[in-house]
Structure formats: structure tokens, C-alpha cells
Amino acid sequence: MIICRGNSVCGGIAMGKIHLWKKSLPVEATKGRDPEQEWRRFQEACRTAVRELVILEEKAAREVGEADALVFEAHRMMAEDPGFSDAVKEVLQKESVNAEYAAYFAGEQLAEQLESLEDSYWKARAADIRDVAGRVVRILKGEDCQCLPEGPCILLAQDLTPSETIQMEKRSLLGVVTSGGSVHSHTAILARSRNLPALVGVEMELDENWEGLSAAVDGERGLLYLDPDPEVLEELALRKAELSRKEEELAAWFGKKSETKDGRQVRICANISGLDDLDLTVVLDADGIGLFRSEFLYLEASDWPSEEAQFAVYKSAAERMAGKRVIIRTVDIGADKQPDYFSMEPEENPALGCRGIRFSLCHPEIFRTQLRAILRAAAYGKISILYPMITSPEELGQVLAFTTQVKKELDTEHVLTGEVEQGIMIETPSAVLLGDRLAEMVDFFSIGTNDLTQYTLAADRQNSLVQDLVPAGLPAVLRMIQMTARSAANQGIWVGICGDLAADTGLTEDFLRMGIEELSVAPHSVWKLRKRVGEISLDPI
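Above: the chain's sequence. Below: its structure in C-alpha cell form.
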């Protein structure tokens, strides 16, 4: 038995077989190859790629619909495109290299040509070219297709991007363990939203021999057991049963009011990343959606989601919540959240760069498409708009003016829209310090404690080396929250918390005494937090 330690991002216990998530090996050029022989290898790999893509297209059409299956049709056409084949043949004839390198090199050349164009549509096709070329290279190298096994597994990886995580089917996962990442990464957030036992920053060197090995994840104590002893499995099974019993007890809070002993109403809402989380939010009886992370609609897509595609999702959320508030955060792309189909300019420090509302203002057509979809969906329920990464009243004024312009455009087109509340994320120290002025311009504040902690403590949320700074810096973050609540109260607007600290039941009473009116957490934490609120009395001490 081997025991590895890490940082827990979601409690619970999982036991099962390991599946290793492998990153593709680099492609190296081998000189002196026969161009004709390598050309035949390339052609056969393309035929295999086409067969794979046809199967994927049919599967997608059955499971998610014809529209989402079109990406595989497009990739199939690229694999058969003479332009790609001719580029590969030219490399083979000129360089006498292996087909793997020729396919990779040709794919990169074509992708870079598309990225140099002004048209955003063709820029986005660069990612498709790379995807197809990568598939062909994988086949030539004899690597298996990267996917989860059919049976449930414990996934081990060096690290996972948000887009990789979001595309994994929950029913295939028992738990997730990575050697990289931090407890505040967006991969960790997704694990919590899916209630998967998960560890990050685990001290381990992935070994191919671990594939299929029995393992256990102890999300309560931050431990990974490889080939666990029978005694360990027995103890974990008992603790897992006890956790299940406690979850059943929490179910008693279904349908109850979220209020303190002395009758103060508090909204316990859910943070969601898509319609799967929405189903869970409805089942678990949250008081609303406190944070709809719309960027995951972009990360799981193969191209910028259209107005109609977004409208359908937002409308469904509004209707399913049946009059409860749905707060949609405008796309928060940048830093660690970058769609595969769009190449962002490299930045030395992307966490301080073009992300959040800055990205939207730099790409007004993308912003306009999203706002149109949200405003239209607002006609079908209670929708609010939340703008991320606001730093100044001037920036906020620019954003609000843009939204007003989009609303006028829709009215001119006689398109049905609804009224929306508009709020901002408080996640930068500047937003806290300018809180009184910002509060005059909006209807509510939502405090994003993950980024607020990062920027207050100058501690990168993705860097496991500085995570130990966070507990010591908590008093500074709590003071920032208190200042924000005071600014909101002074201007008569409401304030909520949607970051990870919202789920910390040890801080719940402190937050309520500060004047926080809404706490938004992962769906599975709603009942736990409702129970904690019900134990608190805010009568003067």
C-alpha cells in the first residue's frame, strides 16, 4: 500500500479503480524517412480519424442533439480536406521526416495562418485544425484515444484544464486526484459543484503501472491510498456509511425556510456551471442561483456559443427556477479559463491581465451576443446580470452604457426582453475601497472571495506553493468583506457572497452580522448551510 498526501477540495470518500489521464507526448522530427511510405501511413491515419469522427458524430447526435454534433462533422471534413493533405505531403517531400511530425507541423502552419486573419470566425477555426492534426498524430503514434473508461473510476492526472473537467461525464467518475492545481482553482470548483471527492497538489509521480490499480480517495483527510490494505478499506467503508447517514439527516432541511432562530431571512443559493448543475439546484431546493458561471458554456463548446444557444440555456434556467432569482455572471474568460478555439495574447501575469469584464470590453461583439441572450431570457423569469472583475466607477459606467445600448437595439428590433437587476463582483481591493461610489450605480454586490483573497494577499490561487498564506491572511479578507457590506448598506443595496468562504459554516454567523443577505455555494452544500443558519440567533449578545 502507498499513501500520498494532498489538499482536499471536496470531502467524501471514493473507492475504485484508477484511470490515468495522460497528456500527449511531444512530437519530434525523425529525418531520413521514405516520403512515399510516410505518405501512405498518413493516409491510413486520416481514414482511421474519419471513422472515429463518424462514430463520435453519431453518438453526439443521439445524446446531445444534431446541433452539437456538427463539430465532429466539421472535423471529419477537415481530416478529408485536400488542403491539409497537400500541406503534409509537401513537408514529407521536402524534409523526409516522419508522418507524425509532418502532420503536426502542417497543422500548426495552417492554424497560424488562420490566427493571422482579422475575421474572428476563421481565427476560431485554428483550434479545429489543431484538434484534427492532433487526432491524426495520436493515431500515427499508436496512442489510445483520451477518454474515460465506461466503468466508474478514480481519475489521476498531473492537472486538468476547466474545459477538460467540464466535458467529463460525472457518472464515469468516483473521484479526482491531481498532482498540480490548488484548492482555489476552477477545476477544484467544478469538483465541488459535482460533489466529487477530490484532492489537488498530491505528492505523487504518475506511474503507468497504476492504470487499473485499486485506490481510495479520502477527501476528508486529504489522502490517496494506492492498493489499500483490507483494514484501510474497511475503515473507509464505515466512515463513508457515516457520511451518507449525515447527508440523509441534512435532507430534513429540504423545503424549509432559510432563516435564523430569530426569524431573519437569508437566501441560500447555488453556484452552477451549466444545466446539469441546474437540475441538482432544483432537486436540492436552493433559494435561487447566486452565480451562473456562464464561461463554462464557452469552455465546453467548439466555437463561440451563438445568441440562440445561450438564450436557450438562460431561458431554461429562468423557467426551471420558477420565479427565484437567477444571477448570470457575464463571461469570465482569461487567466486559467481559456477556450481551445480562441488564442489569447500571451501575458506574463494573466491573473492581472485581460480577463473578466476586461475581456468583454475588448471583444464587444462577443459581449453584445451574450447580453442580447440574457436580456431576452429575462422575459421568462427573474434574471440578474453580474459583471466580473470591476475595478472603478469609470469602467462600470462603460459597461452599463453598453448594456443600455444593447437593450435599445433589442427594443428597436421589437424583440421581447425583461427587466434585469445589475450587479458587480467585488473581487478586487479597488472595488472594495471604491465601494460607496460603485454602490450608487448598481442594484447589488456579490463578493467573489476566491479572487478577492488572491488579490488582497497577492497569493496566486493556482499556485500551491502560496496556499499556506491564505489562513493567516483571512482577517484581512474578512475586513474587506465587512467594508463592502458597509458600503452596500450605506447606499441601500443588498450584498451576497458567492466565493468558497460562503460555505464555511464557521464564518456564517460573522457574515450575517456583517449584513450579508445571500450566501451562494455548491448545490450539495445548500442543506448544510441552511441547517447552520437555522442554528444562529442574531439577537444582541
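The chain has a mean pLDDT of 86.
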